[in-house]
Amino acid sequence: MTGAGEGEREHGDDEQSVERMFDCQEVPPWTQQLTLRSLAVSAILGFFLSFIVMKLNLTAGIIPSLNVSAGLLGFFMVKTWTKLLEKTGLLSQPFTRQENTVIQTCVVACSGIAFSGGFGSYILGMSKKVADQFGEADTGVNMKEPSLGWLICFLLVVSFVGLFSVVPLRKIMIIAYKLTYPSGTATAHLINSFHTPQGALLARKQVSLLFKTFGASFIWAMFQWFYTASDGCGFVSFPTFGLQAYENRFYFDFSATYVGVGMICPYIINVSLFLGSIISWGILWPFIRSKQGVWYDASLPESSLHGINGYKVFISIAMILGDGLFHFLVVFFRSSYDMYNKRQRKDAATPFADAAALVGPCLSFDDRRRSNVFLKDQIPTAVAIAGYVLFAVISVITVPFIFPQLKFYHIIVAYIIAPVLAFCNSYGCGLTDWSLASSYGKLAIFIFGAWIGMNNGGVLAGLASCGVMMSIVSTASDLMQDLKTGYLTLSSPRSMFVSQVIGTAMGCVIAPSVFWIFYSAFDLGSETSGYPAPYAKVYRGIAILGVEGLSALPKYCLNFCAVFFFVSFAINGLKEVAKYKNWKIYSYIPSAMGMAIPFYLGSYFTIDMCVGSLILYLWERADKRHATVFAPAVASGLICGDGIWSLPASLLSLAKVQPPICMKFLSRADNDKSCLSSEISSASINLTEKIIAEYIWIGGSGMDIRSEARVYSNPDWFRIRASYPSGTTTDPARVRLQGTTVKLSYSGPQAVFKDPFRRGNNILVMCDAYAPAGDPIPTNKRFNAQKIYSHPDVMAEEPWNTLCFRRSLSGLFDGQLVDFLVLRSGIEQEYTPLQKEAQWPLGWPVGRFPGPQFLI
């Protein structure tokens, strides 16, 4: 009966066996799985996917899995290559799924550095531009401007350590514990399907659809570029739901990238993003802004962390930390419990029989074949340990030269605890498909930032230690995901490891280079730019919080942070309980992390993603099978086309080529003002031989300014001075001085300025005011000042270099020197526009003074 049962099980396994379909194909040795064409294709795809990841990283910071894109494009490129060589008779080696897996591994490792390298988070958070937005910890010891040289060097010395940290554990993780690694498993099934006759046909259809949507997305991005001549221009600033909603960042910005991302992300993630934007930009921020002048100084700039921006940054940080801490604890306890149970089962089985004897017959055909291949090409443990120690020593020596704030003993401590965290992250990722690399990085910011302190550069040191920790932990879990993919495609662990090393090396050069293109071409980190890089401010805010404590928070911000931290924790707790209890509401509980992201950015990208979800939903309603097969390809095409346009757009920006058109949307009131301004401007736009001279005099105090305009053909200064209005063309002006109406008349021009309103060559001519009898009016203080300055004793003093001033004026009047305007002594006179109702300087808080101007 036992034999019959085993035979039935074997027969059942054969019906669903993947490896039976490839049983006739010989598994190539690991050296033949690594080919020059696979590495060439990997470099090309790695470069372009790095551009896409970098753009996502610097915009909203949401990066979906691009494994489908890498797998499809890798398969298509090599398959096309082999077909061309086959027609010419030069094909020497067929394209296998093992080579496809090597390409996948190398591409993902390369483009992964664009994320784990922290270009949109801790690296940009070190820069002066981001530091200036905080107004604190902005000294040289806590800032470091990104530079291509040190970026490449830093990544090269820290990115390889994580690869060696988990290599000795690969058999335990994949064969003994049978961890699923969902993303790695899904990628393996995709690659396996490509190399079956039916799968190859389906892959060609998917690739065809991907390239169609890629082309459409690229052309759409290029078309949009023509209308973005300035900030706030183009389709990206389209006030879809009205101008008031646009002010609160509720609008659809026509981004093909985030429509595609929305098609890939689960529905609940997109709903969570939109819900977070409603809570923050629809309710919370308007409420806090209504407390302007009560909770925070109304004169603070919008970007100051002591004002409204502080609430945005720190409340979102509280939610992110709450979400990260919860998942850290869940993964830790789940991993510990899972390991304990497996240890118990192993101990219970030992007394009865040899474990090795029981495992073999119980495995399916697929598992037996995969295990044999996986255990065949070993990576010696001694090599892994030696590699870890070697790169750790290099890092201990090199990193303090790049970041003097970090001492050698700080790096040693990091590398002592890093293998433990790398194992925890790899194990948790195998169970949940959730990498906590960023959470471990934030933990490093707190630990090392508090250890080093503000005055010793704790902010910069915390950000740099985050980079060290994230690089180790992230690459370790990525390697284990790829080893799982290799296990399911019969790829050698040795070829997978070498491919990961090569891909990482490519990424350490390609990713900084791509970032440098963005950094040189665009205004990164600015809230008004197309690349706000929200996580750069979040990570720097965490670093400041780590070294300064709660004193960095504005009024009542700590209360809000505590509430949202526990709300984040509670939402995740409810989600876990609902999942464990199998409650129906599980699918409808939002993601706390998803809700936190739009707290700073706004809802514009969440609307894009919801549009993507709507497209997918309608597609699934019409044909679910078709949508399941082709939606990932369509989404990938949308993401890739829009992302790749960033390359020519950045090159155009570096070449100082600006878009020709600005498409803006104005309210009726703003439009009326704009039309008036256009009329004023058009009045002088074509005056090549004529100018308008606006003569201006201020008769007394208050709102009694008077002016009159004259048009001159081929003007010179003497003509302007001689033909000033003398009150004959208009009624003489009258003002009230000390209760008496005084009749005023013009006197000679005293100063000339370019007209900032009419522009062109038009001028403003400032005049003195006199009574009709020729006496200066009482408020004409310049009259007495001029008598003093024209005194021979004063004229003999020359404290200023008057030659430059004379030359600057001579350029206005055809080389005629205007000595009568050159003062060798003088006073500065300022004109301050006042608010009509309050008689207080325009733009100042009524009854108060503006805040210190160095606070940003």
TrEMBL record:
Coiled coil residues, start to end: none
A GO biological process held by the record: glutamine biosynthetic process
Record has Transmembrane as a keyword: yes
Location(s), subcellular: Membrane
Predominant place of localization: membrane
Keyword Glycoprotein: no
One GO cellular component term noted in the UniProt record for this chain: membrane
UniProt-listed InterPro entries: Gln_synt_N_sf, OPT, YSL-like
GO molecular function, one term: oligopeptide transmembrane transporter activity
Alphabetical UniProt keywords: Membrane, Transmembrane, Transmembrane helix, Transport
Transmembrane regions listed in the UniProt entry: 60-81, 102-124, 148-169, 267-288, 308-333, 379-402, 408-427, 497-519, 553-574, 595-619
Membrane topology per record: Multi-pass membrane protein
PANTHER family cross-referenced by the UniProt entry: METAL-NICOTIANAMINE TRANSPORTER YSL7-RELATED, OLIGOPEPTIDE TRANSPORTER YGL114W-RELATED
Family the entry assigns: Belongs to the YSL (TC 2.A.67.2) family.
Protein name, per record: OPT oligopeptide transporter protein
Organism this protein belongs to: Musa troglodytarum
